[in-house]
């Protein structure tokens, strides 16, 4: 699962600084606010992205609306190839939400 997480970081690296906060039960990725979190397991990597809208992707297991501009999308990665181009685009979008670019417009 480390390879899948490394793929996530590789997608985000060109965007700017990405802080990785390793906590007891999860790994959080904050910018100005947390935009993604991951929970490592032996055979999969659970997590969520925060987007400013509802989005669709086959990996999304649950979508929860917290406010008009904060929608949590829960997912489960089982291989590095799960981080496909569509998921990578959503990671980039989530990074923008973490930087609060959606409220600065």
Concise overview:
This protein is α+β, with helices and mostly antiparallel strands and 105 residues long. The protein has helices spanning 2-12, 85-98, 101-104; strands at residues 21-22, 27-30, 34-40, 45-51, 60-67, 70-77.
Query: What separation lies between the terminal Cα atoms?
Result: 36 Å
The percent range for strand residues is 25-35%
What's the Cα radius of gyration? 13 Å
By DSSP (H or I, 4+ residues per run), the number of helices equals 3
Taking all residues together, what is the mean pLDDT?
94
Q: Specify the CATH class.
A: Alpha Beta
Sheet with most strands:
6 strands, antiparallel
The CATH architecture: 2-Layer Sandwich
Question: Could you say what the CATH topology is called?
Answer: Yope Regulator, Chain: A
How many domains is the backbone divided into?
1
**Coarse shape:** globular
Spans of at least 5 consecutive residues whose pLDDT stays below 50 are none
Helix content: 25-40%
Give the oligomeric state. single chain
Q: How many beta-strand segments?
A: 6
Helix and strand succession?
HEEEEEEHH
With strands numbered from the N-terminus, the spatial order across the biggest sheet is: 1-2-3-4-6-5
Class of secondary structure makeup: alpha+beta
